[in-house]
Amino acid sequence: MKMEILDYDHARDFSSASRIMYEVGWLEDEDDAKAFELEARASVGWILPIEGQAECVVFTAPGSMRHGTTDLAMTAVTGVVTSRIARRLGAASKLTAHALAAGREAGGEVAALNMFDQGYYDRLGFGTGAYSNTIKFDPATLRVDRPSRPPRRLTAGDWGDIHEAMRARMRDHGSIVIDSGGGLRAELSSYDAARTIGLGYYDSPDGTLSHFFLGETSGENGPYTIRWYAYRSTEQLMELLALMRSLGDQVFSLVMEEPPGIQFQDLLVQPLRSREISEGSKHAGKHTTHAYSQIRILDLVNCLAKTHLDAASVTFNLQLSDPVAEHLGARTRWRGDAGDYVVTLGEECSAEQGQSPDLPTLRASVGAFSRLWLGVRNASSLAVTDDLRGDDALLRQLDRALRLPQPHFGWPV
Predict the structure, then answer these.
(1) What's the pLDDT tens digit per position in 192-202?
(2) Distance between start and end Cα atoms, the chain
(3) Angle at 17 (CA atoms; ends 65, 185), nearest 5 degrees
């Protein structure tokens, strides 16, 4: 079946897109539909129509991803949805590949998404991102030796302040930012106002929101789920934790993603004892780990030109494969990043097209190399579990060169 890709036009396509969202169960009521409309208006989108109706839709949003201390232009794939009649036609792969090409041609250097499960987006060159640690704990057991002060209440109407606080937050390796606040606004608008908890402080020099947390409550005693938080210093993080601890008189459990660079168990009083005592309860202490995100390089040359490592230099041949070309239309100029390169990793990094007979060779898919470059796993590990091959001496060199902190998005895509 011939399928023509069209730019998403909100006036023309929203009713079809929302119908698909209802079909797959992502929308359930009018409030969900209003939130989706906000997100659709704030996104860049494409459709594949069948008989004049959109039957597959992809949305993206521009942003940035930090590698070390350098920001790279990012294309975030924020939504991929296919109707019941367009399944098994390759529609989602074709349309997502087109969205990646459009992002690349607009200057995107990396791409990111949250996956529904591992494997599907590998066909477009994505590799699995780092583990995310989710913790469930009794806030009364936080070891934070400081008083809390009265915060300001935050609601969905404060989405602009929250977006700016997220953009200005303390950022670590692998952190991302979505440029537009429309997606965040849409998500917050989908929360039940009566069950939303948002608390924060306007301590920035210009009086803007500096640190906060926001999420959803459940019953009198919780669990409360913290979905968004930001801070500009570790001192502000500790103040947020003190504020969480102040809730412990009533709230028996909080759920949140572990902050980057922090081993949260260090901050809890007798965490193992508390876990055993609460076992079997809805407030049971818990620590779960999953990888929900995927990443891929869109522009190898630019990504490496902006990469700086605290390591001795290593130079090698890279034979890079990229499956995205199989899903791109003939008129798309970008065909992925497959090819032969001479790569140098060190304080100054680079990738130049070509091969040198005097250098060792690394063979990798773009997904596996993206994981290596971002520090998701080292070369020796990826040689066992992913599409990456090289001799042992080269793998050991790469292990030493790419000793990076665990990447952490810190922003739901």
Answers:
(1) 889 999 999 99
(2) 32
(3) 45
Average pLDDT for residues 165-192, to the nearest whole number? 93
CA nearest neighbour of 225 among 2, 412, 76: 412
Question: 58: which strand partners?
Answer: 46, 80
Q: Which residues, in sequence order, are bridge partners of residue 70?
A: 67
How do beta strands 176-178 and 127-128 pair? unpaired
User: What are the beta bridge partners of residue 342?
Assistant: 317, 352
Q: Where are the beta strands (DSSP E) in 116-220?
A: 127-128, 132-137, 152-153, 176-178, 196-201, 211-216
**CA separation for the pair 333, 278 (Å, rounded):** 57
Neighbours of 381 (CB within 10 A): 15
Average pLDDT of span 294-304: 97
Beta bridge partners of 79: 59
Residue 310 is which amino acid? D
- Using alpha carbons, select from 45, 39, 73 the residue that is nearest to residue 59: 45
Task: State mean pLDDT over 228-247.
Answer: 96
Tokens matching residue 33: 């539909």
Residue 56's H or E segment, with its range, is: strand 53-67
Section 97-108 average pLDDT: 96
Q: Taking CA 119 as the corner, what is the angle to CA 118 and CA 124, rounded to the nearest 5 degrees?
A: 120
Strand, helix or coil for residue 343: strand
Nearest to 267 by CA among 146, 409, 131: 146
Task: Say how many CA atoms lie within 13 Å of 268 toward its Cβ.
Answer: 22
Q: Which amino acid is at 343?
A: V
The pLDDT of residue 137 is 92
Question: Quick one: which of 389, 380, 383 has its CA closest to 361?
Answer: 389
- Asked if 330 and 257 count as a contact pair (C-beta separation under 8 A), the reply is no
Residue 247 token pair: 């809730």
> Three-state SS for 335?
coil
366: closest CA among 140, 55, 104? 104
CB atoms under 10 Å from CB of 278, counted, come to 18
Identify the bridge partners of residue 211 per DSSP, sorted by sequence position: 201
Q: At what angle do helices 30-42 and 10-23 cross, to 10 degrees?
A: 130
Which residue in 191, 181, 239, 248 sits closest to 215, CA to CA? Answer: 191
Segment 16-43 shows an average pLDDT of 89
**Exposure string over 314-325, b if 16+ CB within 10 A, otherwise e:** bebbbebbbbbb
Can you state the percent helix, strand and coil of the chain, rounding each to 5?
A: 35, 30, 40
Does pTM top 0.85 for this prediction?
Answer: yes
